[in-house]
Design goal:
single chain; alpha/beta; 7-stranded parallel β-sheet; two-stranded parallel ribbon; 9 helices; binds nicotinamide-adenine-dinucleotide; binds uridine-5'-diphosphate; UXS-like; UDP-glucuronate decarboxylase activity
Length: 319
């Protein structure tokens, strides 16, 4: 049986990956210290004899007994609010954590997949961003703990590939949304949905003209799984090229929530990227992958999940 270890497996993306790989018949060891993830994200998987949850900080020695065919390194704070709060932890999980995860892959003869990010392109001067673009990152700016941790992690991954013979892959993930995002993680979509559902002001940063291209989680996971079982080294962009301004995203969320919440303009964070859109030619040509879920549909599914969560919380409070 195929067996994988997923660091950060109790997070938003990690939990969807655990679920998908279990459904594919894979045995999954999920390693997480719950610094930004939640045990509840994988609670429903605990009944499977092919699933194991290990509470461990991957910046410490990473030991997984038994055979491992692939190591997926997804552990890292990922939202700006989280990595501003945890700057040193973010740099350590990108450096020491990546080193340990690569060491595990090497010891087991496993394929290694690094969850990198579109933030590797910083505030891009090339649009859309192909993998060949080197980026425009401020190494000492407020986002540097995340951007540079991921750029270092990519470099370490390539060093292990070239000098230690580890079969590696790098995925550059663009903004992804869906069920199991935390309402308080500060990212635009969960924030806007929570605000719209509560009828509170929807906080748009700056004038909202900055853009992001958002991908529904199921599409992203499909692209990641295809890259995992390929022999492509990457980096490979995975994301949905459908680009939207943040103001239009806020308006769309409000409409889909059936809300009349006002839009409130707040100061724009320093070094907030102005545009972002993946060039997914490589993923399309080499993995046969393209995203399928339209933004209205993906947002509607996400809003439904958030609504169910708030109804459930209300019922728990009333009980
Ligand atoms: P998340 O915060 O929900 O998940 C990250 C998980 O890593 C959490 O469960 C957290 O507890 C765990 N973790 C962090 N540090 C750890 C440590 N030292 N030891 C063990 N576990 C640790 O974030 P996410 O959105 O699911 O992101 C997952 C990965 O994908 C991250 O590496 C992130 O950088 C990358 N990524 C995500 C997006 C996105 O849009 N969600 C975009 C680009 C890249
Ligand atoms: N943003 C916003 N209001 C919020 C949270 C975020 O307008 O309440 C903006 C943010 O400044 C950025 C965009 O939405 O321009 C996407 O932010 P997010 O944190 O979701 O992702 P990232 O900046 O990491 O791409």
């Amino acid at each position: 049986m195929t067996r994988v270890a997923i660091t950060g497996g109790a997070g938003f993306l990690g939990s969807h990956l655990c679920e998908r790989l279990l459904a594919d018949g894979v045995e999954v060891v999920c390693v997480d210290n719950f610094v930004t993830g939640r045990p509840e994200n994988v609670e429903h998987l605990l009944a499977s004899p092919r699933f194991r949850l290990v509470n461990r900080d991957v910046t410490e020695y990473l030991h997984v007994p038994g055979p491992v065919d692939a190591v997926l390194h997804f552990a890292s704070p990922a939202s700006p609010v989280d990595y501003y709060r945890l700057p040193v932890e973010t740099l350590l999980v990108g450096s020491a954590g990546t080193h340990n995860a690569l060491g595990l892959a090497r010891a087991k003869g496993a394929r290694f997949l690094l969850a990198s990010t579109s933030e590797a392109y910083g505030d891009p001067k090339v649009h859309p961003q192909p993998e060949s673009y080197w980026g425009n990152v401020n190494p000492v700016g407020p986002r540097s703990m995340y951007d540079e941790a991921k750029r270092y992690a990519e470099a370490l991954t390539m060093a292990y590939r070239n000098s230690r013979g580890v079969d590696t892959g790098i995925v550059r993930i663009f903004n992804t949304y869906g069920p199991r995002m935390r309402a308080d993680d500060g990212r635009a979509i969960p924030t806007f949905i929570s605000q719209a559902l509560r009828g509170e002001g929807i906080t748009v940063a700056g004038d909202g003209s900055q853009t992001r291209s958002v991908c529904y989680v199921d599409d992203l996971i499909e692209g990641i799984v295809r890259l995992l079982w390929s022999d492509l080294p990457g980096p490979v962009n995975i994301g949905n090229p459908h680009e939207l301004s943040i103001l239009d995203t806020a308006r769309l969320v409000r409409r889909l929530c059936g809300s009349d919440a006002p839009i409130t303009f707040i100061p724009r964070p320093v070094d907030d990227p102005t545009v972002r859109q993946p060039d997914i030619t490589l993923a399309h040509q080499r993995l046969g992958w393209t995203p399928k879920v339209a933004v209205d549909d993906g947002l509607a599914r996400t809003i439904e999940w958030f609504s169910d969560q708030s109804v459930g919380a209300g019922q728990r409070r009333a009980a």
